[in-house]
Amino acid sequence: MCGAYVMTPSDDEADAPSHLRGKVRQALLSALGLRLGMWVVEGYLAVERFFGFLKRLLFTCLKFVGRQIIRLIDAVVLPIAAALTRRRVSRGSVRTLWGYTPILTLPHLAACDKLLGLQSESVVFSTYHISRQFDVNLQKWNGSAIWMSQNVFGPSLYLFRMAVLYWITLRYDVISIFYDRSVLPGQSRFGLNRDELRRLNRAGTRIYTYAYGADVRTRGITMALGKYNCCIECPDPGTYCICNNQELRDALSGMADAVTARIAMGDMAAYVPGCRKMHHWPLDVASFAVTEPPERNGRPLRVAHAPNHPEFKGSRHIVAAVDRLREEGHDIELVQISGVSNAEVLRQFSDADVIVDQLYIGFHGYTALEAMAVGRPVVCYIREAEMLADADACPILNANPDTIYDVLLACLRGEVDLTALGTQGRRYVERYYDLPAIAARLGNLYLDTADFGPALDAKLRDRVGHLEAGLPSIDEASVPERFRWASDRTDGDGRASPASARQHIQ
After folding, report:
1. C-alpha neighbours within 13 Å on the C-beta side of residue 82
2. Stated pTM of the model
3. 480: closest CA among 413, 387, 415?
């Protein structure tokens, strides 16, 4: 009997339905997981959007509440501050503040106010290594507030600054500040906060604004001043100064009605329309030791130059002039000073025969005054005689990049009496930049603008008269005529006067 042939599936074939079912199950689970994952993601995003909305709503509410609280504090504090100012003015016990840019003249300016019988302090939020001698230094508190703002509570810095502003309105009657910063941040990189100015006005505070250079200097106005200016070799326009004309316009807009007076001097007057021109750099001249000029005894003529930024001072032309003179066989050396303390700068000035300040800016800097205070002659580019405190008595040898070689050559040949110019320089700063001289100038400023009232004005007038009577007399400087400055408004290089340069921002 033939056996029947029965077909039986192989093992693989038997497992096929199970394998397919596994794949289907895996696909279903993956799809379900993907769907669940999408639901989770969508849910998370929805929750995140919801909490973001709550955060924005809460921030808006806090901002609104904060504004109302600030307005309430304004309504309480500012009238009290105004009443305190009126009371102190009537009693002749006016308090003045100098801030907030931490430059080394602030303590000296406060000392000048004290010579007028006023109570004065310097206030800063930060310091440079060059000087830390300020009456009120808020650097640690300000640093803590910055850390709190970055790590704990965003408005911490603003609240700290507002508290300081209220303290200032209650404590001081006159504030003198520079254009680059106020207590509250300005509307731009440079400039004063307009809300702060309005609060100070409501508190009856007299506000004086001063220019120191970078806080008002713009490239357009500076380039219009003439062939040589501090912008022609600027390595990075927009970094070191306010630079932009529109930014300066914005910084100065609306300020005329908010401040008591705007003050500038020298080249800085070109940038501040309607300013009161007044030299306001004080020196405590008695603290500068005058030493006899070092004996030559066959040594080279020593020229010292101490630029903080060589590209703004025409330093390369000084180097080139000295190198040329040396190549011609003249005995001369250049000492370039940088990265040292102010005391070391003055020591090296005392060891030099002549100091070159700058050849580009068109006005002498504070370093030139310090050099004259130690009895050393100064070479500097002076664009206009009108920029000087006293053009006839100023002993500065005028030089620009075209003439620095001739000036140094004349010094080598003995055509310039360097010893006499050094003596006259010391006399010049005693007469025009010593603390009593600046104090008398500030006193006249307050008499003309502060409206303190008859009683206090009488006291101020008496103090000013006493200070002016004690200033030394001064004679015409013995600068050779060819190294003086022209008093006309233009010259061959087409330079513009500050008045015409100001047209760029008006």
Report:
1. 13
2. 0.83
3. 415
Closest CA to 216 of 134, 274, 139, 132: 274
CA nearest neighbour of 493 among 199, 115, 224, 190: 224
Beta carbons within 8 Å of 400's beta carbon, 6+ residues apart: 228, 314, 359, 360, 381
All residues at 6 or more sequence positions from 144 whose CB lies less than 8 Å from its CB, including other chains: none
310 CA to centre of own chain: 18
Q: What is the pLDDT of residue 132?
A: 62
Distance separating alpha carbons of residues 275 and 264, to the nearest angstrom: 6
Residue 98: strand pairing partners:
122, 176
pLDDT tens for 76-89 read 999 999 999 999 99
Give Cβ neighbours of residue 409 (< 8 Å, ≥ 6 apart). Answer: 325, 330
Question: Cα separation of 307 and 503, whole Å?
Answer: 30
Pairwise CA distance, residues 165 & 145, whole Å = 15
Which residues are paired to 397 by β-bridges?
Answer: 379
In SS3 terms, 208-271 reads as EEECCCCCCCEHHHHHCCCCCCCCCCCCCCCCCCCECHHHHHHHHCCCCCCCCEEEECHHHHHH
Residues constituting the chain: 506
Residues 461 and 448: their CA atoms lie apart, in Å, by 11
Q: pLDDT category, 15, cuts 50, 70, 90?
A: low
Binned at pLDDT 50, 70 and 90, residue 1 comes out as very low
Task: Give the max Cα distance, the chain.
Answer: 153
**Mean pLDDT, rounded, for 177-189:** 82
Residue 281 CA to residue 291 CA, distance in Å, equals: 23
Contact in structure between 120 and 114 (CB atoms under 8 Å): yes
